[in-house]
Inverse folding.
């Protein structure tokens, strides 16, 4: 397994945890906003491991503001990481996959890419783009036996949603914790999503049971979005 992350400390911690259960890990510090770094990182992966079989595009940022407070800088950050970074990683990896004649690419979108939100306009735009990239790339790469799919998580119990809750509390003049409680109450399955709920679907899309699935974005949100 190879971990690419702009935060090297966190990546090394994850790598150590994988090694502790018997896995082999290569950690590379990389910023997806830098196309040349991504191309070199992918080349280093192939050099170290001989091939690149599965890519999980999980880099992302989220900034939340009302419509009239959204700046050009906010849009630039969302699209630099969530759209361009994801696309250029997909592009660099799929060049090697085409030569191999196989591969799996899994993009992390969001339920925010499925529907709008008054305080997430620029974030929703970027995640909708991820879904569109997934569909087009799947068609472009299908002749080479490369599957491209995406996952659209909902309210996941992570540090990210802790920050989202604080921001929404400020925007809505609510106590901290209340936006998150309301979001969880709206989930049909009645509980907040865990990182493992997303990881399990990543494993499915990376494995042979998903060989006949491509161009799809799977909602993993407890029933928030029905499609």
């Amino acid at each position: 397994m190879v971990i690419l992350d702009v935060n090297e400390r966190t990546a090394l911690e994850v790598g150590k945890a994988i090694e502790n259960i018997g896995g082999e890990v290569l950690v590379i510090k990389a910023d997806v906003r830098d196309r040349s770094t991504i191309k070199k990182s992918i080349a280093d992966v192939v050099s170290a491991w001989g091939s690149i079989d599965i890519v999980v595009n999980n880099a992302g940022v989220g900034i939340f503001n009302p419509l009239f407070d959204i700046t050009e800088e906010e849009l630039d950050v969302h699209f630099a990481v969530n759209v361009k970074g994801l696309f250029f990683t997909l592009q660099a990896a799929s060049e090697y996959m085409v030569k191999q004649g196989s591969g799996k690419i899994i993009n992390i979108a969001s339920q925010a890419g499925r529907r709008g939100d008054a305080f997430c306009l620029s974030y929703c735009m970027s995640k909708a783009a991820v879904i569109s990239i997934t569909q087009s790339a799947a068609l472009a790469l299908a002749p080479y036996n490369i599957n491209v799919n995406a996952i659209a998580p909902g309210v996941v119990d992570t540090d990210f949603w802790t920050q989202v809750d604080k921001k929404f509390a400020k925007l809505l003049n609510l106590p901290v914790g209340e936006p998150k409680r309301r979001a969880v109450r709206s989930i049909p399955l009645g509980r907040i999503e865990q990182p493992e709920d997303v990881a399990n679907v990543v494993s499915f899309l990376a494995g042979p049971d998903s060989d006949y699935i491509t161009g799809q974005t799977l909602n993993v949100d407890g029933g928030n979005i029905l499609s």
